[in-house]
Amino acid sequence: MTLSGFEILDILELIFFTPGLVASIYVVYKHGHRKQLGWRFLVMICLFRLIGASTSLASVHHPSTGLTVTYDIMNSFGLSAVIYTALGLLARVQSGMDVHGLPPRIFRLLGLPGIAGLVLCILGSINIFSDDTSDQKNGLTYFRVAMILFLVVFVADILITIHSYFHISHVQKSDRRLLFAVTAAIFFMATRTCFSLLCAFANNPRYFSSWSLEWEAILVHACLGVLMEAIIVGIFLWAGFTTVPAPRATSPRRKVGPAVYQIDSESSKPQV
After folding, report:
1. Per-range mean pLDDT, top range of 9-23, 93-107, 243-257
2. Domain-located, residue 259
3. Where exactly are the transmembrane stretches of this chain (predicted)?
4. In this structure, are residues 210 and 223 in contact, taking their beta carbons and an 8 Å threshold?
5. What ranges in the chain are assigned the alpha helix state H?
6. Is residue 269 part of a domain?
7. Where in the sequence is the domain holding 166, given as residue range(s)?
């Protein structure tokens, strides 16, 4: 049986991201489960790719709108997970810089565009594959706004990376490997982001689409989308394996003084 280009791409995703998922779970276990470290987003990249590839293969034999929508959502979620993995690693770098680092509230605020973008991606994918023309237009609008929100966070990643280099002397030696990993991944993140923006705004599904069956679109998607995420996962896994875990914040120990007993000298005398 001859495999289509889409099926070959899906199988390659399963081959790469399955061990990638196992490795990323180990990295999360090694570094802990604290949100500010960002390692959990690395697991999400692999999960989103595996779910997308599985639904795509399933749709070959059991085509349905639900499977197509799920596949499209997973592709959009992959971009957000890539951007927020980098943001989480930068948050650790900045937290180790003490007063020279950015306030933690900045990273919390940058989480809001991601949440809004994920919601818009879901609404966009559902409406794009609707039979109603007006819903399709609304879905495309939602998708475009979501990509702009992700772009804002990606630009923030770049600016925070630059800020870290301006204060490189205050970056802990154990965290510099994370900063170098984010720096190495920025080019591939930019390529992945540009691909999503072209899918949203170019209006040319023959070349820029994550679900088109045209061989040109499949090739572009494989090179600018899937391959970029695979390289980014490889870079971040290298950083996770070679970087020591962040020290846990220890709460100050409570000083417990000796028990104080008030003894009445008069009452302590033996009664006659």
Report:
1. 9-23
2. no
3. 6-29, 41-61, 73-94, 106-129, 141-166, 178-198, 218-244
4. no
5. 5-31, 39-61, 65-95, 104-109, 111-128, 133-166, 173-201, 215-221, 227-242
6. no
7. 5-242
Give the CB-side neighbour count of residue 4, counting CA atoms within 13 A: 15
Unique residue bearing structure tokens 């991606």 = 121
The answer as to whether 51 is a domain residue is: yes
Q: Tell me the pLDDT tens digit for each residue of 90-144.
A: 999 998 888 888 998 999 999 999 999 999 999 998 998 888 888 889 999 999 9
Q: Is residue 182 within 8 Å of 86, Cβ to Cβ?
A: yes
How many angstroms separate the CA atoms of 169 and 214, rounded?
Answer: 50
Single-letter amino acid code for the residue at 253: R
The answer to whether residue 197 sits within a structural domain is yes
How far apart, in whole angstroms, are the C-alpha atoms of residue 83 and residue 151? 9
Closest among 115, 87, 43 to 185, alpha carbons compared: 87
The domain spanning residue 136 has which CATH number? Answer: 1.20.1070.10
pLDDT of residue 1: 61
> Residue 213 and residue 195: Cα distance in Å, rounded?
17
